[in-house]
Design a protein that fits this description.
The chain is an alpha/beta fold. The protein contains six helices and four strands, in the order αβαβαααβαβ. A four-stranded parallel sheet has the order 2-3-1-4. The relative contact order is 0.24.
Length: about 160
């Protein structure tokens, strides 16, 4: 682990993070950008990293890109509440289908069901490059190389 001076702004921190990852990539044999991550407390600190990666031709993706609006749906929140309320962390297909069967059928529950089916097929999707995500989303994931951006960590959230 190393601590790099990155300045006080998201832009200067992005420059330091990308420069260090670029330096490591040039020295490592078999470097794979899809085994790397950039983590910050908030998404706003990741936007400059994404922009810089795109400018430099580094494959990059934001963990909040796909289906981002889906997480704010009432139906999705109901599913999350149901999952959190279970005594077991394991959920079978039958459990999930039973939960879906008792939900009021509408366009959004259909979208949610389709998304769950797709997600099930793409668990731990084929990461295409440097994955940018918040610390909250990084829980349980593993990467060979990680940069942690220094922004808003001293802020106290509701949780």
């Amino acid at each position: 682990m190393q601590v790099l001076p990155g300045g006080d702004t998201p832009a200067t921190q992005a420059q330091a993070a990308v420069a260090e990852l670029r330096r490591l990539s040039e020295r490592a044999t078999g470097w794979d950008w899809s085994r790397c991550a950039g983590i910050a407390r908030t998404w706003v600190h990741l936007d400059p990293v994404r922009s810089l990666c795109e400018m430099e031709g580094i494959p990059v993706q934001m963990a909040n890109e796909e289906f981002s609006g889906l997480w704010f749906l009432r139906e999705t929140r109901a599913l999350v509440d149901w999952l959190r309320g279970r005594s077991s962390r394991l959920v079978s297909n039958a459990d999930l289908l039973a939960w879906l069967a008792v939900q009021t059928s509408n366009a959004w529950t259909q979208v949610l069901q389709e998304w769950l089916a797709e997600w099930g097929r793409e668990v731990r999707r084929h990461q295409r490059g440097l994955l940018l995500l918040t610390a909250h989303r990084a829980k349980g994931l593993e990467f060979d190389h990680v940069v942690v951006l220094d922004g808003d960590w001293v802020s106290v959230g509701r949780d």
